[in-house]
Amino acid sequence: MSFYSCKSQSSPEIYKEQQTAIAEDTTFVNLKEYSTDFVYDMKYATEDNFLKAKVYDCAECYLRLKTVQALIAANKEFLKKGYRIKLFDCYRPLAIQKSMWKIVPNPEYVADPAKGSIHNRGGAVDITLVDKNGKELDMGTPFDFFGVEAGHNYPNLSKKVKNNRSFLKKIMTQHNFKSLDSEWWHYNLQSALKDKVANTKWDCE
């Protein structure tokens, strides 16, 4: 298994045409080479996360091609309404999962690398929404907040927060992503659940 990266100076639209013509739907690709319409805050490439540790060498968002295609389609719907997706995490190599497990060996917070997670399969994204000014919508809790308040079914939230979470979930599920009940930010592409756990890392430039 390998990553596919196009280094042409062409537009993201041409990248997409070139890459799609070559790559299979389970090939790992770099999202930024397919679209410039996303915002990035890759938390695990910094110490600004619940681990308080930088576990990625650099901030990149790699995903399976089919996940990228579904994510772009969802983002287009958000763009029509004046919003866009902001990404916190994408594909996570298994070695990184093991590093996270060493720091926090608790399955309530980190998936056991012995089983692997959908992040290790390139089919999961951790996201929120931002408005046209880049301001995050109020989702009630920060990303990676592990209290009950982060759950989709938690009742004691303001109407605004409930509407924001519902808006995010509605568009994502329309594009074949499934939410995680306990984490408002986490979405899995349903067709990626059977893909293999991967451990290939991307190059940092």
Automatic annotation (TrEMBL):
Alphabetized InterPro entries for the sequence: A_A_dipeptidase, Zn_M74/Hedgehog-like
Recorded catalytic activity of this chain's protein: D-alanyl-D-alanine + H2O = 2 D-alanine
Cofactor: Zn(2+)
Binding site for Zn(2+): 119, 126, 186
Residues flagged as site, Transition state stabilizer: 92
Pfam families with a match to the protein in the record: Peptidase_M15
Cofactor: how bound: Binds 1 zinc ion per subunit.
Catalytic site positions: 183 (proton donor/acceptor)
UniProt-listed Enzyme Commission number(s): 3.4.13.22
KW Metal-binding (keyword) present: yes
Keyword set, alphabetical order: Cell wall biogenesis/degradation, Dipeptidase, Hydrolase, Metal-binding, Metalloprotease, Protease, Zinc
A GO molecular function held by the record: D-Ala-D-Ala dipeptidase activity
Top-rank EC class of the record's enzyme: hydrolase
Superkingdom of the source species: Bacteria
GO biological process: cell wall organization; proteolysis
UniProt record similarity statement: Belongs to the peptidase M15D family.
HAMAP family: A_A_dipeptidase
Function text: Catalyzes hydrolysis of the D-alanyl-D-alanine dipeptide.
Record protein name field: D-alanyl-D-alanine dipeptidase
Gene name tied to this protein: ddpX
